[in-house]
Amino acid sequence: MHRRSLFISLGAAAVVAGLGACSSGTQTTGDPGAGSSQEQNASSKPGGAGGEVGVFTWWADGSEKLGLEALQGEFKTQFPNDTFVNLAVAGGAGSNAKAKLAADLANNNPPDSFQGHAGAELLDYISKGQIVPVDDVIEALGGAGVFPESLLSLLTVKDSIYSVPSNIHRANVVWTNTQLLEKAEITDPPGDIDAWISDMDKLRNAGVSTPLSVSGSWTQVQLLETVLLADLGTDAYNGLFSGGTPWDGPEVTKAVEHYGKLLSYANKASDGDDWPVATDMVIDGKAAYNVMGDWAVAQFADKKKEQGKDWDWFPVPGTDGTFDFLADSFTLPKGAKNPGGAKDWLMLVGGAEGQKAFNLAKGSIPARTDVAPDEFPDYQQKAMESFKSDQIASSIAHGAAVSQAWLSDITTAVSKFYGGKDAAGLVKDLTAAAEKHAG
Question: How far apart are CA 319 and CA 389, in angstroms?
Fold first, then answer.
């Protein structure tokens, strides 16, 4: 059994969640003879509860849109009585969607279900009484028999589970253009950030004007978190959120300086640019590297690019052996107009067939442990192995490590740094954000 520890910030408290190994067990709750039929029919009516089911996400572009379309197809097959209503809002890794959602929830106009990141992000909704527990859905899906205890721990607050996970993503991945690396005679992944910077110099000397691509502010936050992870190591990085690691310490200062140096090799991004802009620069041969979550793998597939020939990947230098974790999940809002239809949707996204269809399209890996890996491409199979064996760190940019309010202040600090490149100022702003939100 692998034992790991995961530190996440839960409002003013820091929670250390013990992580067990990913089980390969099958469903153990409910009627032992029900099997997949129980997963496919959570409502009391065969074929679904009926009516419109409004689902709010930020999956409006690229592979994310393809993943949502795959779920829509499965939903129509499994619940023909229900009518899916796509309420997706594009842009900003969910920042635009979250602003719209906050307004709808404040006005007592919730969707039937909405997307959220597993971890600290959900506390904002729980504390306001805007979502209700879904323990019955998790139990019907198989509970701890099919979901890793590590993931269920992230979803549990005061002994209740408030969302159903649809997938697991890895954030600390570098996507590469193989032809540009060959042009610079770069053959092996660098071992740390300094070695990576040296490789970027080789690319510049070989005539590659943009070694690294970035997009809007949230992608820059994700790049920063991976540099923090590389320079601090997993335990000290996790300590940033548990209170064990100071934000104004020398390790963070070193990481911020590395981060600024990396940006000097990058394109000039607009704040409104979303992630496909930067990933497409690698696909189109305009940049050699892009740090992005593994939703990018489906972007390469959609553009008919082949791994090994056109592109490849490696963990952000200095983070090999660590899985920078985030997971998408879906909630049941208080006051949903069609709670029965919402539970149909939750049963779909948490069920084996839904997770297979969705993750094949999106590039992530199933949250369930009973979905066979052999039908997935090489990258996803390796990601499944990594999640079982690696140390785990929680993503800042994607709501696993910090609350929405804390993330907002980090994003503001990163945006300010992008304009002025004041390393001392960024450390000061990050420290202030932690003092404000970590308690």
Answer: 14
Tens digits of residue pLDDT in 254-306 = 999 999 999 999 999 998 888 999 999 999 999 999 999 998 998 999 899 99
DSSP for 398-412 reads TTSSS-HHHHHHHHH
- Count CB atoms within 10 A of the CB of residue 107: 8
Looking at residue 375, the DSSP 8-state letter turns out to be: G
Give the chain's end-to-end CA distance (angstroms, integer).
Answer: 34
Apex 427 CA angle, 5 and 216, nearest 5: 85
Distance of CA 347 to the CA centre of its chain: 21
CB 82 within 8 A of CB 119: no
- Residue 6: CA count within 13 A, CB half-sphere: 32
* E strand map for 20-110: 51-56, 82-86
Cα–Cα distance between 31 and 111 in angstroms, integer? 31
Q: What is the pLDDT of residues 102-146, one digit of tens each?
A: 999 999 999 999 999 888 888 889 999 999 999 999 999 999 999
Task: Give the predicted TM-score (pTM) of the model.
Answer: 0.84
* Total residue length of the chain: 439
Tell me 369's DSSP state: S
H/E element, 20? none
